[in-house]
Predict the 3D structure of the following.
Amino acid sequence: MISYSEAYKIIRDEVQKLKLYTEEVDLLGSLNRILAEDIFADTNLPPFDNSAMDGYAVKFNPSRKQWKMIGEISAGNFNLFTLDDDSAVLIMTGSKLPVNTSAVIAVEDVITENGFVKLAEGKIIKENQHIRKKGADLSEGVLALGKNQLITSNKISLLGASGKARVKVYRKLKFGVLATGDELVDIEGKISDDKIRGTNLYSIISAVNEFNMDAVNFGFVGDNKEKIKAKLSEAFNSDIDFLLTTGGVSVGKYDYLKELLIEFGIDIKFWKVKIKPGKPLVFGVWEKDDITKFVFGLPGNPVSSYLNFMIFIKPAVQELYGIKDNKTVKAELTEVVSKKDDKRNFLRGILEFNFEKGKYFVRAPEAQSSADMARLANANCLIVIEEERINPQKGEEVECIMI
């Protein structure tokens, strides 16, 4: 049995060998995809000096308090005016400024009367106020967005402003998901005797989809060696990059999966990790004719399988794409946590930010069963308790992975 750090390093190093391919998609289709090219501004942003608010464009002169109105300019309807010390132009937000503009006075700071604009009592003007200068955001040719980052909605406008109607992104990886176990029925199936709903299949597929990768559903298979073998053959002959199975990797009489993986020529890199929950994890690599597939035999308990995806598979794939995960925070425990073993524990937790104190606080419900889906559903983080820490006390700082 190896440590969490050793297991993660093995997974990361193997996954890094995977070759990534790119494709071009429409700008709107690039949301939540991973950028595969550096984006450079093809124009100045903004492309011209413009007004930051509705107001009056003037030529700055600290001694002037009144100007004659000579016209107006709205966004997209530029008129050529040249300002002197005595003139002002009504200007709308985002509009291109007249020649000689060196200040914009907000509409609420003036009084207009008989074709003149007068500075209101108590108001002052500063040179260059309320002016957005050409290229102030980005200059033409400057890097706007670097590759290997997730394209979120706040990046779309910058891509559009850089003229990217089509965006080069990395192709999605394909994750096959297979659930094993005689006890499993589908979620619409009848619960009777010793049967349970096979929620793992849906949980892991959802985790893959949430990560915006492609999931291939290989369904359910009972603890029948030949049927499992047929499903594995189907998976290995498909175009998936990863096979994620749940169940059948422990030491029970009918836990065939590890044995069958070896029969299929899988190079088993490790079996069992010193973590809680999720210990009976199998990781292996299948290679044939220059094709590589990664295999994860996840535990059957729903919390364990989901946790292993979140702490091993997702971050290793993020590193492959060069994405830095920013969903880990430090938090203060609000109560004692019971932890007596020498494993790395991942506890479901409730994380809250206290604005008054300016930091995160976290608590862990007492029940931490690896089959407790209710606690998992109501958690918003995983509390990491390192191997050497025993019974962390209230007030101690812990690392939390947000989920």
About this structure: The two ends are 27 Å apart (CA to CA).
